Amino acid sequence: KLLKIVIHFIAFIKDAVIDFENGPLIGESLFLITGKTGSGKTTILDAICLALYNQTPRMNNAHKAKYDDTDGDKIYDDDTRTLMRKNTAKAWSQVTFIDKDGNRLIARWYAYRAHKKVSGGLQDVTHTLETPDGTLITKKKTETVREIIRRIGLSFEQFCRTSMLAQGEFTKFLRAKDDEKSEILEKLTGLDIY
Description:
This protein is an alpha+beta fold. Helices cover 28% and strands 25% of the residues.
């Protein structure tokens, strides 16, 4: 269960906080993300996926071509750091959520440039999982993803097919093989214990 999303300098979003425990979204079980093209709808989905899995559906469709970004760094277009807003020194996404066992956790994805300066070279992404009191559970990217998969019970692909259907992805879920759909639905409903 998502509780809060914090976004800083990711794609077109400078700063945003989406709080499901306070304000107009409290107690709402269904809501719609709407807006004009380029207003940041997909960026919200990207931010959630970055914090949880250090990847996004948008990156899966990238060509894996290497290019010089506007700041002179060599980077592949499927690198999640390409979502960092141009001419910024740092960007992050933070998701507070409740895992399948009822634990409240915070997943963080953080990208930055050397010396926290716009002119600095791109540094490796930091991806962590911690408790609300600041106790670090994992700080290595691969460990963080493994732990989040264990605690949520869904891989990135399963999460995208069920909880985070980006544009055009619903059709993929509908066309998936019956055993794939069954596995996902069992995990979502908790029937996999049987």
